[in-house]
Design goal:
Length: 483
């Protein structure tokens, strides 16, 4: 009986709920829509400085997804096999796509993004997703593993300026200061975490000799996928790029200071090297009394900038594009491409503003064959499938040694004819042009790593490049006087 009474009560409750729902339906049978929630205004008491910082910065923060082809053996991926797999053509080896996630920050309205090198290195495909969900393809235009930095370029819609974050400053960071990390941890886009500056000028070391110095340590939680994302101060200013965590601890993360990025930006996005042009002026950034400014810090003799620009000149515009930060300068110069052009520079010298024109020169490509003979002591030839068949080589790409200089650098490390060079100074080389590009950046007498394949064996060894020709010592033999 009691169970029956409870059942009747349940039926009555359901009926009452149904009547209430029916009463909420207006005439015509249309259900009234609830008013859309709107974000509180900036003066709402709940809108903290952290909320304001996120609102200010989030449109310029992107999620990065990459696809990399790695070698899989026996069902287990081994990234290190990528450089050697062609030397061991076995049915157990195959290329499989591996996807990874990271974060980045748009630092220029034309679509230049700064992120970590380890996020995009060796990626065959890069996609970036903006905070509004739109997806764009991107390409890597610069990479510097030494500082774990990379620059990507995405193409914005025609005539559209993308949201971007200018560089902040990191030289005045305070231990205990609130900071914010935003990124794509574990694929959870737009995740914000907060913490403090735990320490500055930290050094961390990784396996294989990798070492990063001058880092910011923060307690803001950083997880896989955060790499390359921004570290912001409470004003929403970009003060660092998150790069690493201590996996064996909690809330110990590290970021590259933004001043380090500014100091290395022109070396990273080296428009002269990439575009094969000569400009000749080194441009640097500093924090002035009234904000950031860029200036001429050095002039290379014999270059187009000599006699036009001078150390100490304050650079305020290039081709009528006003600028105060180094990414504005480097990205503008990079966008000009490889043609020799006259660059209009607006400068301030001695308190007076003036405009000067610097005529950039085209730089011919280096002669890889000649540099290989001069610095490596070997004559190299590009390996093609046909060359590999004719010479009985185990791989079909790289550069094969066809002649060796007696007592040259290659002979000193035990190289032989038919050895195949596939890597130099950390860069894969597949032809003489790529070899020349690497060698022209190295110094005579410098020691670098070289990757060699011989038969079914691949190895990475050290080679010391040939030094400059020694000057003949002055004769100490006394000269005979003519009688």
């Amino acid at each position: 009986m009691k169970i029956f009474d409870n059942a009747r009560l349940c039926v009555a409750a359901i009926a009452l709920a149904a009547l209430s729902a029916a009463a909420a339906v207006p005439a015509g049978g249309q259900t009234a829509a609830a008013p859309a929630a709107t974000a509180p205004a900036n003066d709402d008491i709940r809108v903290t400085p952290v909320v304001l910082a996120y609102r200010k910065s989030s449109p310029a923060i992107v999620n990065i997804s990459t696809e990399t082809l790695v070698t899989e053996r026996m069902g287990f991926p081994d990234n290190w096999l990528d450089m050697f797999d062609e030397a061991f053509p076995a049915p157990m080896l195959r290329k499989v796509p591996v996807h990874s996630l990271g974060s980045g920050t748009i630092i220029h309205p034309a679509g230049y993004i700064v992120t970590n090198a380890h996020v995009v290195v060796r990626a065959q495909k890069i996609d970036v997703t903006m905070s509004d969900g739109t997806k764009h393809s991107a390409r890597m235009v610069a990479l510097e593993p030494a500082h774990d930095l990379a620059i990507l370029k995405m193409e914005p819609p025609k005539d559209a300026a993308l949201p971007h974050l200018p560089l902040g400053r990191s030289d005045d960071l305070m231990v205990g200061e609130t900071v914010i990390a935003v990124g794509n941890p574990m694929g959870l886009a737009g995740t914000l975490t907060t913490g403090v500056i735990s320490a500055t000028d930290r050094t961390i070391e990784f396996s294989r000799g990798a070492k990063y110095t001058g880092l910011i340590q923060t307690s803001a939680p950083i997880n896989p996928g955060n790499s390359g994302g921004p570290l912001l101060n409470i004003k929403g200013q970009l003060v660092g790029i998150t790069t690493a965590i201590r996996a064996d601890a909690q809330n110990i993360g590290f970021a590259i200071p933004i001043d380090t990025i500014a100091a290395n930006f022109c070396r990273l996005l080296d428009f002269e090297k990439i575009n094969r042009v000569v400009f000749g002026a080194t441009i640097s950034q500093r924090h002035g009394r009234f904000g950031d400014e860029i200036f001429v810090s050095a002039i290379r003799p014999g270059t187009p900038a000599e006699g036009k620009l001078a150390p100490g000149d304050l650079l305020t515009a290039v081709n009528d594009v006003a600028m105060t930060q180094i990414p504005q300068f480097a990205c503008e110069m990079f966008s000009l491409g490889g043609q020799a052009k006259a660059i209009k520079c607006r400068i301030v010298r001695g308190g007076k503003e003036q405009t000067v024109e610097v005529a950039m020169q085209a730089k011919p490509p280096p002669d890889g064959k000649e540099l290989g003979e001069k610095l490596l002591g070997m004559t190299l030839k590009k390996v093609t499938p046909q060359v590999a068949r004719e010479m009985g080589l185990p791989i079909s790409s790289g550069l094969v040694a066809v002649a060796l200089a007696e007592d040259g650098p290659a002979v000193k490390i035990g190289m032989r004819k038919k050895d195949v060079l596939f890597r130099l100074a950390g860069v894969d080389v597949k032809d003489l042009d790529e070899l020349g590009m690497v060698l022209e950046e190295l110094e005579a007498g410098e020691t670098v790593q070289i990757g060699i394949v011989r038969g079914q064996t691949a190895a990475i060894v050290q080679i010391k490049l040939a030094g400059l020709p020694a000057e003949k010592p002055a004769s100490t033999k006394p000269t005979e006087k003519k009688k």
